[in-house]
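2024-03-11 09:14:02 INFO worker-7 job=invfold-0412 stage=load source=structure_tokens
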């Protein structure tokens, strides 16, 4: 008897077409901008400057990397400011 290799009936992309993408936050770039990945088809999205979700293209990955660096240095400065200011 031969074992038949049954492939799953639903390929991830089809699953997403039927049930919608299941996005999970994979990266927090700034307070407003996040990167999302669909756990089924691995499609990636990001938030653009208007707050809309758009496809995460290499160009946007680059922008996000820059944003992240700016954001990190800014929050670092804010943290120091809070620590040096008198308590409420
Ligand atoms: Zn998907």
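2024-03-11 09:14:09 INFO worker-7 stage=emit residues=88
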């Amino acid at each position: 008897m031969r074992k038949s290799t049954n492939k799953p009936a639903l390929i991830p992309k089809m699953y997403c077409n039927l049930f919608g993408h299941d996005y999970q936050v994979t990266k927090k770039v700034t307070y407003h901008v996040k990167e999302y990945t669909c756990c089924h088809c691995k499609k990636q999205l990001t938030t653009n400057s208007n707050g809309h979700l758009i496809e995460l293209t290499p160009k946007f990955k680059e922008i996000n990397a820059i944003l992240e660096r700016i954001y990190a240095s800014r929050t670092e400065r804010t943290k120091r400011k809070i620590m040096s200011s008198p308590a409420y």
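2024-03-11 09:14:09 INFO worker-7 stage=report msg="The mean pLDDT is 86."
2024-03-11 09:14:10 INFO worker-7 job finished
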